[in-house]
Amino acid sequence: MDGGAPQPADTVMSEAAPAQQQQQPQQAQPQGIENIPATLSHGGRFIQYNIFGNIFEVTAKYKPPIMPIGKGAYGIVCSALNSETNEHVAIKKIANAFDNKIDAKRTLREIKLLRHMDHENVVAIRDIIPPPQREVFNDVYIAYELMDTDLHQIIRSNQALSEEHCQYFLYQILRGLKYIHSANVLHRDLKPSNLLLNANCDLKICDFGLARVTSETDFMTEYVVTRWYRAPELLLNSSDYTAAIDVWSVGCIFMELMDRKPLFPGRDHVQQLRLLMELIGTPSEAELGFLNENAKKYIRQLPLYRRQSFTEKFPHVHPLAIDLVEKMLTFDPRLRLTVSLVQLKRHWLIPT
After folding, report:
1. What pLDDT, on a 0 to 100 scale, did the predictor assign at position 215?
2. pTM above 0.70?
3. What contacts 207, CB < 8 A, 6 or more positions away?
4. Over 80: is that where the pLDDT of 212 sits?
5. Which positions are catalytic?
6. What percent of the chain has pLDDT over 90?
7. What is the mean pLDDT of residues 205-217?
8. For burial by CB atoms within 10 Å, which of 92, 199, 283, 294 has the most?
9. How many CA atoms lie within 13 A of 129 on its CB side?
10. Rounded to an integer, what distance in angstroms lies between the CA atom of residue 317 and that of residue 161?
């Protein structure tokens, strides 16, 4: 969904350990158009709004006022009150959803997956809003549970984060990812803007448009995951990847959270691979075992990089957190930590 409502930089989270917070979630209060005119349509069954010069048409149970909280290549997101459930939701309009076959597949994939998922750390679909005319329609409206912001906004803000906040965020990411992987689903596009948060520090994974069921028989595509969070096997065009690609992304996200800047901000694929090798070092021959011969040949002709010390490069990060991240950011996906909580109990993530 690429984020909830933008959160002002001066919004303050509790300094208490997030797991112990008792404050109630606050609904998003985005700035912008405060009085958007509403027009009844289709015999009063629907309400039309004009938002950013675009028609936003939803069933009449979503009463005014409606607030725009996001806009992107996918369309517009607005917050609205469902008068039947008395719940505020985030409604995403995907305009001309069927004009492009790839975009249509992503939309249908997300709906299909999220309708079958039910977990505290995975965003929930509340409603698929039917079109006024089922025989002829181009736009899709999906109502999700409303969150306040996303991890990208928090990282870019001046909001101070305690170690307990970061620990709690990482725990929730891995908890949600464990559930997703247990359903044989790879998310394939984990990044800070796809991790939604509310004022109580609850975190939910969103945007399953690139997710893929691992049992599907067609070849996996390498065109997944935003470059900065892309695992080495994807950078090397491997089509035989596993859930380990999501674990790599989480490692990158966590270090960005701790350091308040991207870990590997590559401008292109070549620089991206160089940046990660500058930190974790050139892989050994044994670590190249999962690659095809062309990829191995490419790696061998690159300059040799000595592995840097994570503890020296990130002295402000807890040593046990460093130990955990190092196990997530291994070049060889076969050696990468899984999201199994059994494996994680001995690490910094879960206090004893």
Report:
1. 54
2. yes
3. 1, 2, 110, 189, 194
4. no
5. 189
6. 60
7. 71
8. 92
9. 27
10. 13
